[in-house]
Amino acid sequence: MFNRRIALICLIVATLSACGGKTKEELYAEAVKELDKGNANGAIVLLKNAVEKDQNYFDARYKLAKAYMTVGKFEQAEKEFQKALRQNPSNPEIRLDLAKLYNSINKPDESIAEAKAYLSARAGSADALEVIGTSYGQKKMFDEAEKYLKESLQAEPARASAMLQLAKVYLATKREQEGMGLLNEIVRKDPKNTKAYYLAAFYEGYRGNSEKALEYYQKIMQADPDDANAAFRIGMMHISKGEVDKAERLADDLIRKASKRPEGHQLKGIALYTRKNYDQAITELQGVVKNYQNPGAYYYLGLSYYQRNDLESALSQFRKVIDLNPKHLQARLMSATVLLQQKRTDDAITEAKRVIELDDKNAFAHNVLGSAYIAKGMTDEAVRELNRAIELEPKLVGAHMKKGIVNLARGKRAEGEEELETAVKVAPDVLNSRYLLASYYMRLNKQARAIEVLRAGLRGGKQDAPLYNTMAAAAFADKREKDGILYLQKAREVDQAYLPASFNLASYYISKKDNGRAAGLFNEILKRDPANLKALIGLGAISESEGKAQEAVAYYTKAKATKDPVGYLSLASYYIRKKEAPKALALANEGLKGAPNNAALLELKGGLLAADKKYAEALKVYDELEKVAPTRAIPLKIGALVVTKNIPKAVEQAQKVVAANPKSAAGHLVIASIYESQKDYDRAISAVRSGIAVEPGNLRASMALGGIYEKKRDFARAIAAYDDILRKNPKNIPALFAKGAAFDQSGKKKEAAGIYRAVLKIAPDFVPALNNLAYLAAEGYGNKSEALSLASRANKLQPNNAGVMDTYGYALLINGKRTASVRVLEKAVSLLPNNPAVHYHLAMAYRDMGDRAKASVSVQKSLQYGEFPESAAARKLLAELKR
After folding, report:
1. How far apart are the first and last CA of the chain?
2. pLDDT, tens digit, for every residue of 135-148?
3. N or C: which end of the chain has fewer CB within 10 A?
4. Could you give all domains of the chain from N- to C-terminal order, each with its CATH number?
5. Where do the TPR repeat units fall (predicted)?
6. Burial per residue of 73-102, b for 16 or more beta-carbon CB atoms within 10 angstroms, e otherwise
């Protein structure tokens, strides 16, 4: 390839050098000779020089346009044809050439206009009539196409190219006998007319008659053994039949015969893709697209990048396909799919709609559009599109699954469950739908039904291992531990290489403090795979939990030795837990030498530097992180900038979030949080309102607005913000509770208690309302027994919530349960050591128990933290204890 490029460069340099002293006529004459030899590129160099010598040299410019068209440089060809036409408007041949060019680039309207202009000067031209007929065929206006093509054949009955176009029209309108009859007539007159065979092969392939199509491609090879395109088509048919070996042999043969042509390399790349050898496929296909603008090669190159999860590169290739062929539906569908995965939902919707404009009966396009609407929360539109997809393709499992999910999200359980069951019925061997239905039943705590669905998918082979593994999860959730262990053992029996079952069994043993059995499983895995990262980390964790630091470090070091970034992270995390940050930082740097773009290692390094208050260095690391994972990097950069009080820069970073999703409130909320952290509430409110303006239905933004008004102590506006939400949805629990809390903070305790009670009517186990109402009841906005009942229920629902614990302890105290109160409040203080109210409540409990010394210490601690709602009562208690 390098030698070929050098030779080409030398040829061009030599040509350019020779051009300098020649007249325009000499350059033109040499160009014509080069064209006769088939060297259009060499001719282009000479003709450009001739035109540079004389911009009005019509013959050279016209010939230059034709040369551009020969090499497929249609844009340059069109420009030169237009210039030639302006120079010589009376020459009708330019218009006919333009018409043919427009047909080549799928611009039929422009082609018809130019060809009809030509006909006004050359009435009855078979060539022009054929061009017009071809254009109408492109527009699917088949009656007009047939009319003009028949007129062309009347003018020139033996015109094979017009017969071929007419055959296309017949086949497109399902007049098979007439179409195939014309093709047979063409090859009877000219057995080497491969275009007729190509059309016949394409038609048979379209009908699904692959064997007949193969016969026609073989006839092409008989007529022209060097026809690489026919060989490529035969290879693609082998791949579609699963005969990848045959395709690869054919590709190797093509490469051997003509290594510089693209067909062999493209077929080889597609075969490698089919074998899931994506890296080699990319290398092979990149070689094709370097020299040839081939939509098929770009498409499979995009698929290869997609399988490697390199979404941006994949999208770039699909875009190139669309640039070359705007009607390539699969490339548009894949673009929409990638955009959806990148959370560029609006762009995905636009692309899916474009496919539907081109083909409304494309079930997959409706399915993708439905998925995009789900991502936007537009459930009605999503169901409409998914219904259309199912109508067009009843066995489209994905559409049934998504429709089921949407219905479940809308609270339509029966319809959702029915769709998920349908997905399983239409494709019983597709495991994803079976897992989804089982997982739905597991969420409903119908573990037995989930196991039944999974058991129905068992087929008696290795494919059963994941099913047994999920059955175990259902059994454990149902507290049937023996069954869970049995299912995991079954999974290991049917497929010893299926490691999730072994890891899950090990996790179970660890949860039961049976480290010996867990370690045995990890060691068993390591016998099969000595570098298994998860097993090494598992053994390290067991050793660490048993206090065997040396062994733990040894296992984590072995994990690091795999050179996998996760191995470095495991050892670094161990050192962080041991408060040895420098060692962790050294490991992050070492890991980044081998994987400089690893997001987790960059995040670890930046976090360690920030924890050490080296914010400038941390920001440099986050800059690198932003290149590979912007959504992870930007919040970290904002955090570091806010800590260093560089608010303008922090806002600048947040603007990137806005720019990435201009129709979302998310970025504006980030800006608001920056200003809120600085107590710049007016700017924070302005930012939230900007978010609501671009996304009016964003609940998070509306709630944030109320929250900021509360911090500003503007309770009237806070309540108004929550009321805006409640007007649209009166049963919105977060908004209703927040309204109650705003009344509570503003001192309107009675109104607050009423709202908390309203919340609990809708959601009886909503802990924040239980907790706050319990406290108000203890303060006289209810009775003591109600306070204890509410606080007790909240504590049972969230036994580790320190705030709930404080209320529960206080309720116990006022109900005369002093010993229990002290026990609960002591635990609350240990969890909230800087909360003055909890210290005050504990002081009260100590006093009631008669322990004045402890009461005095606790109440003094409460007053160390400044003012709080009960400060006056705390000072009064301290004075009482001092007497």
Report:
1. 99
2. 999 999 999 999 99
3. C
4. 226-325 (1.25.40.10), 341-426 (1.25.40.10), 563-644 (1.25.40.10), 765-883 (1.25.40.10)
5. 58-91, 126-159, 194-227, 295-328, 363-396, 665-698, 699-732
6. beebbbebbebbbeebeeebebbbbbbbbb
